[in-house]
């Protein structure tokens, strides 16, 4: 009999049964009165959970579309923007902004570390930047940027809008727009929210909405805030067809988040990450990210000598756990393990146990159970 395969990649994450069930419901007309009510509730909940007095947008697309939407509404061709890059997805924002004809400056951190708020402050003193982009958790490195402190810095600059890429952080790391000086938060459905892939979510605070107004007609069409604001405030209106089942799935995901309590959810992610990272280190692996900047959503785990990436991940999959490979310079040198969203201790214990069985099969350990023991102690503290 084959093991069930746990999807422990950094998104899509395991989808809870009740969320999955929403995907199988009979699709209704987007003008269906009950669906309109559901959509309204989703928007209201999103604004409350992520604390914005501005707007929330939910459109069909992925995180990359949300990145486009974030920048397209706050900067126009020729504007200066500052991209803060802690890895692959920061670099993606650079490329995306350059394609839009923006004047892009970049501050990069060595992979595994983060750009500091002081470095950003110093850069912002040099010239007027219309926007700064920061990746909250760069999935390529497992580094979490100090977004609250960066928010404090960017707030001082009246002409600068702070865009936070929360794709690998939202619903696992605190992100409160009004309180943290985040002007635009962009994210996707498939990671810590625990919804299948296919939704781009964008939040815009007052400063960002004023900026959008000041730009007049923008080049981008599908991602234009002005096109979507009437729909998000009254989903009986039409601009683009809403992905009905995914919006139901998101509604169920938000119900789960509210039941857990958002602060409890953040705390759970912290505890799980610390326990999992301690267990991985106990097994002899190294984590790429510096300890003080480690993400709670995933671990970027460096192989010890003599482990071959493809073989490790193949054996691990046979043992029932799917993880992702490294990106960029770390391709072949690490695996990326997601531990975010709606996962309980069954997923976590099974995952570390499968990793131990894999090391055993590869002849890298003859003691089994050290990782499971460390993980369980961490989870029960
Ligand atoms: N930003 C970050 C931090 C991500 O992790 C990802 C996806 N891994 C993206 C953006 C792009 O999202 P998508 O793959 O949904 O387009």
Structural features, described:
By secondary structure, the chain is an alpha/beta fold. 43% of the residues lie in helices and 16% in strands. It has 14 helices and 15 strands. The protein has a seven-stranded mixed β-sheet, with helices on both faces. Helix 5 runs parallel beside helix 6 (147-155) and helix 10 crosses helix 11. The radius of gyration is 21 Å and the shape is globular. The structure holds 4'-deoxy-4'-aminopyridoxal-5'-phosphate. Residues 11, 62-64, 89, 135, 138-139, 165, 167-168, 188 line the site of 4'-deoxy-4'-aminopyridoxal-5'-phosphate (PMP).
Essential attributes:
single chain, four-stranded antiparallel sheet, 381 residues, binds 4'-deoxy-4'-aminopyridoxal-5'-phosphate, alpha/beta, globular, seven-stranded mixed sheet
């Amino acid at each position: 009999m084959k093991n069930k395969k746990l999807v422990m990649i950094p998104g899509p994450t395991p989808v809870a049964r009740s969320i999955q069930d929403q995907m199988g419901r009979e699709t209704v007309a987007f003008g269906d009165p009950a669906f309109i009510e559901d959509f309204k509730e989703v928007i209201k909940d999103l604004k409350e959970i992520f604390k914005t007095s501005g707007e929330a947008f939910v459109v069909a697309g992925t995180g990359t579309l949300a990145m486009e939407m974030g920048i397209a509404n706050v900067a126009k061709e020729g504007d200066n923007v500052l991209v803060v890059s802690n890895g692959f997805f920061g670099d993606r924002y650079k490329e995306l902004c350059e394609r839009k004809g923006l004047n892009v400056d970049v501050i990069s951190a060595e992979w595994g570390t983060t750009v500091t708020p002081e470095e950003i402050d110093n850069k912002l003193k040099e010239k007027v930047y219309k926007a700064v982009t920061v990746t909250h958790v760069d999935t390529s490195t497992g580094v979490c940027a100090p977004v609250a402190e960066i928010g404090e810095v960017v707030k001082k600059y009246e002409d600068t809008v702070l865009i936070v890429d929360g794709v690998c952080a939202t619903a696992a790391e605190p992100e409160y727009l009004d309180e943290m000086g985040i002007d635009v938060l962009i994210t996707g459905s498939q990671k810590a929210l625990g919804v299948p892939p296919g939704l781009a979510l964008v939040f815009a605070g007052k400063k960002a909405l004023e900026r959008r107004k000041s730009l007049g007609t923008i080049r981008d069409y599908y991602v234009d805030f002005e096109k979507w604001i009437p729909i998000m405030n009254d989903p009986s209106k039409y601009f683009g067809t809403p992905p009905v089942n995914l919006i139901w799935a998101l509604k169920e995901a938000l119900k789960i988040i509210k039941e857990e309590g958002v602060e409890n959810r953040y705390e759970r992610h912290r505890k799980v990450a610390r326990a999992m990272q301690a267990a991985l280190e106990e097994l002899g692996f190294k984590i790429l990210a510096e300890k003080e900047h480690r993400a709670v959503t995933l671990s970027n785990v460096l192989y010890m000598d003599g482990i071959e990436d493809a073989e490790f991940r193949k054996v691990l999959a046979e043992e029932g756990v799917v993880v992702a490979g490294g990106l960029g310079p770390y391709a072949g040198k690490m695996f990326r393990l997601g531990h975010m969203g709606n996962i309980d201790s069954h997923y976590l214990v099974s995952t570390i146990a499968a990793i131990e069985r894999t090391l055993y099969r590869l002849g890298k350990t003859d003691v089994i159970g050290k990782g499971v023991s460390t993980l369980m102690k961490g989870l029960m503290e």
